[in-house]
Structure prediction request, 352 residues.
Amino acid sequence: MRSKEYGVAIIGFGGMGSQHGRLIPTVEDMKLVGACDIDPKRQDAAAGLGLKAYTDLQALLSDPEVDLVIIATPNHVHAEIAIAAMRAGKHVICEKPVTLNSRELQDILDVQQETGMHFVVGQNRRWDEDYLAVKKLVDEKVLGEVFHVESKVHGSRGIPGDWRGKQEFGGGMLLDWGVHLADRILLLFPEKVKSVYCQFTHITNAEVDDGFRLSLTFESGRTALLEVGTTHYIKNPLWYVNGTLGTAVIEDWSMKGQIVKLAHASGSHDATPIVAGAGLTKTMAPRVNDHTTTEEAIPRIPTDIRDFYRNVLDAIEGQAEIIVKNQEVLRVMKLLEAAFRSVETNQVVAFE
Prediction:
């Protein structure tokens, strides 16, 4: 049981703000009070839902009915709004990327320490079913020791025609999607990152990256390739996971995929040569005596993004530890900064 119902207001009532607006009323002990946006159409949309339609930030922050604010504005104003909200006595959930750089995030965390309010970043894709399935495969060593992971998100529409294509607003795919992929891979492999190499594409946008390839090497020798593309008419799988005893592929968000494993852990490396193109190969010959098993379905894990909001309320009440920890978010931001340095120098960059 929680001690009260928490009044929630959303700052920025566009795409993600509206998504929060749909979810909040379904979470116990959360009441959606209102929304603030500079766009009159979005103000009308909030009012049409029976919400308070704040026309300026101060009106929202002065409302005693609001206990918690959700920031879903363009990225470049996250820090100033979060700081103002906490100093006004409001707890804060902030959309990702939390800020444009780690320095701004540290400013927020300093104010959090000063005010005692809760500040949590909405890393909602920790609750994605595909990620949770991969994490289970890695943690339970279903594929043996996983030594390489590829996490890719592809589309073909370019960057949306809004602020996401503008550098001043913190646009670009590394900050938009990369922050999710980096967050999840650092949880998947909880060890130091030795080196970072990143490349951008500018196929449809010259100002910010409309795609990237980010290669990470971990202290253990594990590697990861994180990739986002917005001009891919045939998509690569969402996940490709290589272990010493098997490989798993997840094709898309429908969880279509398969797992191929060695039938026996101890196997022979001998093979009969096969004709491959204009030559012969033993190295790439299929297994015959040492056969593999194939599972055509990826084990599914129940997930509910509303657990994110529930965890925030429980943390405010001192009943739980926050799941999305700010030091984890800070590490992600520093990793992305290393990726930006790699792009600028076209070199592998040491990280930790």
Q: What stands out?
A: The longest helix spans residues 326-345. The domain at 6-121 is CATH 3.40.50.720 (Rossmann fold). The chain has two domains: 6-121, 126-303+334-350.
